[in-house]
Amino acid sequence: MYLKKLKAAQWNCNRTRFILTLLLSASFFACASNHAGNTGGPLEIPADIAGIVHAGRTNTPEEYALLDRLGVSWMLVTFTWNRIESSEGRWDFDFYDQYVDTAQAAGKKIVGVLAYDVPWIHNDGKAHRYIPPDKVYFFLDYVRQTAAHFRGRVDAWCIWNEPNSRFWQGSRDEFLVLARQAANAVKETDPDVTLLGGAFNRGIFGLPTAYIRGLFESGAMEKADAVAFHPYELNPARTVKLYGKFRAIAAEYGFGDRIWITEAGYPTGGWYPTATTEKKFPAYIVKTFVNLTVSGAKKILWYQLFDPVVRDKKNSENFFGLVRSKDDYTSKGAEAFRLCAVYLAGTVYRPDLPVRERLPSSLKTFYFKQPAGGGTLVLWKEGSPLQFTLQIPEGFIMHDPVSGNAAAVPAEADITVGSMPVFITWQGDHQPLLFKRH
User: Fold this and answer.
1) pLDDT for res 438
2) 84 close to 100: Cβ distance less than 8 angstroms
3) How confident is the model at residue 309 (pLDDT cuts 50, 70, 90)?
4) Would the pLDDT of 382 be above 80?
5) What is the mean pLDDT of residues 59-66?
6) DSSP secondary structure, 86-114, as one string
7) pLDDT exceeding 90 applies to what percent of the chain?
8) Which domain-ending residue is among 301, 331, 348?
9) Quick one: 344 and 358 in the same domain?
10) What residues make up the domain containing 425?
């Protein structure tokens, strides 16, 4: 019964992604630097950077074992108002209690989304994903009750989800008032919890600049600790470019280094223009994760863990999973995600490394140093593949983003790099690698 209720509640938050039919199909390629986000010195990567949206749904040891293997620190779940207070004054936290308790026992942190309406506040008795101004006090009561009930057990709260899309049916000004009051209610109830605002996605006509600025200028972010963003785009290069635009605006308000990616992903089927193929999916995951990491994102939560068992092939919502289904734990992109989550977390990104000789700027190289020794190198090249010599000490391991298989790399190896990223790790205090083109 718990699982059935949880699925029903989560399905209310089914992410019908924005329609990108007006987007240009041409890819954006980064210029001479490796990326758009960090052009300065070393960057510390949070040890808990990685998470997955809607993880933990099955509430089973098998799923949590998978989450451990994937290096997941965070899980995002919507604490849907209608599930918690289906009628006025009747509070029911039972299945969220079980979800939270199981996650805590497994060592996972939780981002809880406070969102959506209840039918009983509307005259027609139907939910509209809108809260009339004269009924906002009901929503604030739900916020306070929920924040108080889970105080010390939920690690972060986010006010609403993608308000610039169909998830909010009211005006922008109405939402900004709601967001400010809800943020105050959360912090009054639980001053120590991390509070996120925003959770914007890309609109049909581009970044919702007016909405983003309105959130900061309305006072809705005065109590917030970070701002959430969902950089859905056609490909990884466009994703990081969109992130850069958002970061530039957030930086004007002091939040440039306080951005949480609470959703990112690509479907491998359906009609969304952001859809890619299963063959390209692992590469997209690595490139997106790496680019967002070196661009300063504090958390990256992938959307999502499982594809549904029974799915409509036309609906892209059914194809975002890293794993094919909860009944079939085969990887679509889980191994690529695991490499990033496990081997980038807690490192220091060094934009000045590795040493390169006679190599084109189109070869992207990302060097992550472990503070205690060892490190990770990720590289790829768009366009024509490039062959060169990799000079390294012994003990380096090359990982396959598709299968997850690992193999030792010879001390001096000729390798070819193309659009599928090459992922190399090592232990010990070795010197930086040296690349030499043939």
Assistant:
1) 65
2) no
3) confident
4) yes
5) 96
6) SBTTB---HHHHHHHHHHHHTT-EEEEEE
7) 79
8) 348
9) no
10) 353-437
Instruction: Based on the fold, state whether residues 337 and 413 are members of the same structural domain.
Output: no
Give dist(CA 270, CA 312) in Å, integer.
8
Q: Which phi-psi region, left, alpha or beta, contains residue 150 (left: φ > 0; alpha: ψ -120 to 50)?
A: alpha
Pairing of strands 412-417, 422-426: unpaired
Confidence of residue 16 (pLDDT cuts 50, 70, 90): very low
CATH of the domain at 404: 2.60.40.1180
Nearest in space to 114 (alpha carbons), one of 15, 195, 219: 195
Long-range contacts, stretch 128-133, CB < 8 angstroms, 24+ apart = 128/169, 129/166, 129/167, 129/168, 129/169, 130/168, 130/169, 130/170, 131/170, 131/174, 131/178, 133/174, 133/177
CB 373 within 8 A of CB 429: yes
The secondary structure of 123-169 as a DSSP string is TTS---S---GGGHHHHHHHHHHHHHHTTTT--EEEE-S-TTTTT--
128 and 250 together in one domain: yes
Domain count, the chain: 2
Number of H helices, E strands in the chain: 10, 21
Same domain? 338 vs 358: no
Please list, in sequence order, all residues whose beta carbon lies within 8 angstroms of the beta carbon of residue 132, skipping any fewer than 6 positions away: 121, 122
Instruction: Show Cβ contacts of residue 402 under 8 Å, excluding neighbours closer than 6 positions.
Output: 282, 335, 336, 420
The one-letter code for the residue type at 184 is N
Q: What angle do the packed helices 334-344 and 281-294 form, to 10 degrees?
A: 20
Residue 83 identity (one-letter amino acid):
R
The Cα-based distances of 103 to 34, 55, 58, 161, 329 in angstroms read: 37, 10, 11, 22, 20
Rounded Cα gap, residues 34 and 39, in angstroms: 9
Contact indicator for 398, 321 with CB cutoff of 8 Å: no
Query: What CATH number does residue 167 fall under?
Result: 3.20.20.80
- Could you give the CA distance from residue 385 to residue 414 in angstroms, rounded to a whole number? 13
Distance of CA 199 to the CA centre of its chain: 11
| pLDDT for residue 376 | 97
293 and 421 co-located in one domain: no
What pLDDT is stored for residue 353 in this prediction? 92
Distance CA 35, CA 346 (A): 20
pLDDT, tens digit, for every residue of 155-208? Answer: 999 999 999 999 999 999 999 999 999 999 999 999 999 999 999 999 888 999
- Residue where a domain terminates, one of 348, 370, 405: 348
Decide: pTM greater than 0.85: yes
Pair 137, 208 in one domain:
yes
User: pLDDT (tens digit, 9 = 90+) per residue, 92-112?
Assistant: 999 999 999 999 999 999 999
